[in-house]
Structure formats: C-alpha cells, structure tokens
Amino acid sequence: TDAERWDFRSVAALVCELGCDALFEYGYIIVDQTGTIIGGVEPSHAALAEVVGELVGLPCLAYTRERAAAFRAHHDAIVITAQ
User: Fold this and answer.
1) In Å, how far are 10, 29, 57, 74, 78 from 25, measured between CA atoms?
2) Quick one: pLDDT at residue 51?
3) pLDDT in tens, 10-33
4) d(Cα 37, Cα 57) in Å, to the nearest integer?
5) Cβ neighbours of residue 48 under 8 Å, at least 6 residues apart?
C-alpha cells in the first residue's frame, strides 16, 4: 500500500553499494581487450582489495565486440587518471 511505502522506518534500510557496476564505475576493475577483468585503481582498504582480487582474471560477461570500444575508452580513462 502507499502507507507502507511511505513508512520508511519500517520498510527501508540504507545498504552499502558494492557490486561489479560500482567497482567498474569507480575504476577498481577494468575490462581489457580480451574481455577479462583486470585491476584498476588501487583500493585503499584491504576488504575492498579482497573483493577486487576475487574478480580479477574472470571473464566479463557483458563484453562483446560491439562494446569493445566503450570498454577500451573506460580502460584508457582510468589508466590516465591513475597516473
């Protein structure tokens, strides 16, 4: 009901945002020209580094030939920013 949706104290909770999309957008993971996930920006916290480490080396299931240029542009932007 609308009353339930507006009762934030009972139905809503703030949660952390940690997933591949956030890690990609913040540059912690990058997708290389083969579609493999590689490390990007060095994480400042050990727990974050652990999460990134678990993803490095895995294939990015969203990688396609059509998306390759966009992944390359993101890669280049992150590498340039990190230098």
Assistant:
1) 31, 8, 18, 9, 9
2) 94
3) 666 666 778 888 999 999 999 999
4) 5
5) 28
In sequence order, what DSSP letters do the residues of the chain get, joined into one string? Answer: -HHHHH-HHHH-------SHHHHHHTTSEEE-TTSBEEE-SPPSSHHHHHHHHHHTTSB-TT--TTTHHHHHHHHHHHHHHH-
C-beta of residue 51 within 8 angstroms of C-beta of residue 31:
no
Report the C-alpha gap between 3 and 9 in whole angstroms: 12
CB-CB contact of 38 with 55 (8 Å): no
Tell me if 47 sits within 8 A of 28, measured CB to CB.
no
